[in-house]
Amino acid sequence: MNTSHAAAAGSSQPATEAGNELWRIEQNGIEPIPDDERKGDARELFWVWLGGNVSITYVIIGAVLVGLGLGFWAALGAIVLGNLFYIVVGLGGIAGPRTGTATMVVSRASFGQRGNLLPTLLGWLTVVGWQAVFLVLSAFAAFSLVEQVGIGVSTPVKAVLLAVLVAITYGAAVLGHATILFLQKIFSYLLGAIIIGVAIQVIAKSSIHYGAGEMAASTKLATFCLGTMIVAALPLSFSNYPADYSRYLPRDTSPRAIVAWTMLGNMIPAIGITLIGVLAGSVADLSDPVGGLKPLLASWYFTPFLIVVIGGSVTNNFLNTYTSGLTLLALGVRLPRYKTIIIDCFIATALSVYAIFFQDFLTAFEGFLALALVWLAPWCAVFLVDALMRRFEYSTPDLMRTDGGRYWFSGGVNYTAIVSFLLGAVATFFTTNAAKWQSPVCTHLLGGADISIPVGMLVAGTSYFLLQRRRATEPESPLVAERVGV
Fold it and tell me: Whole-structure pTM over 0.85, yes or no?
């Protein structure tokens, strides 16, 4: 890679043989990973995603499904169907070995170098928001943990605990890919063992034959659709991450293996823990998802459960924080990767302080999740349709350019992608039924059903395919140039 491309990558330090070593600060930014630093196989993705998904958020989702009025089997169907959306995360991971760079850099191939700034900015804001969400969740669990040992949770104590969690979370993210990969595997074993104990105790005090409450929508089908979209929101929230963790794999890594191990690592904890939330939500009040589980657990086991909440939130934030740093580089911030983590640290910590001390967290979380989906669904569709059209074959040097090249399109913008993205965003917005926004289409025409994710993706993906396919018949089309090797 020449020096101009390294500068465009937003890293002031060149890649070295020691660019990604355990317990050392990773030197690589978004510049393509050299072949001599690529190692391992797709199975390591299983541990990356498993460790990041042993999370209390799935318990919250399970309790929400019960609150919607879904019985056990309907909830199970929504959980399985919604989590199948993890296929978009698996497919997105294929681009990592093919390009050696991050997802939001690869997105330049569909949106253009300048056009990609819009989804990249939205991606960065969303990931910073997720960092704050998991800092807050881990902080709440830490507050309960110190109460267990008889320490009063005063404001100074809360501040100290939050500072410790911030140091752990961002310390690992600063060290980078190799350290995160190592820690995720350890946390997977530890947290997985504890969560199995939680599952056994919750199952013993609950039943799949619980009585479903009043349905949140007008029909069973509409309520089922609403629940499925709530479940699918979390898989989709990872769609702008996957290449960040697969880019260190060899170029010839099997695409099928990438998809399979990514889906397994995500779906096993997602389905299992959400079912725990369903069963727990049927017999306990989980408006407080941490304290609400306490009556269902042996008194001595509540402390290990709190460790799961804290550990799972921290491991999820390893992924959030690392991706956020790379996304800042993709925006053109000219700093070493580890310094972008420091920027995130200050912003996410400030948001966490606000949520902990001044705001109703669950209300803010619901609003944030619904807003994120409006852009994520159409962006993901455009990104994947473009990738499939070009069979995941990219010109990495052109991805790293800031002017010209086959991804320059018209003045750096692929207006086909922008138009498709905006059409999909509008379609998503007007088929959403969320806490802060119930579209008239959902409430008056669909009986309360939320079909925002498939509709938004279908509109954006179909629009892009039809418009870009038409462009590909024109001699100056970047896709035609790529196919003939120009």
Answer: yes
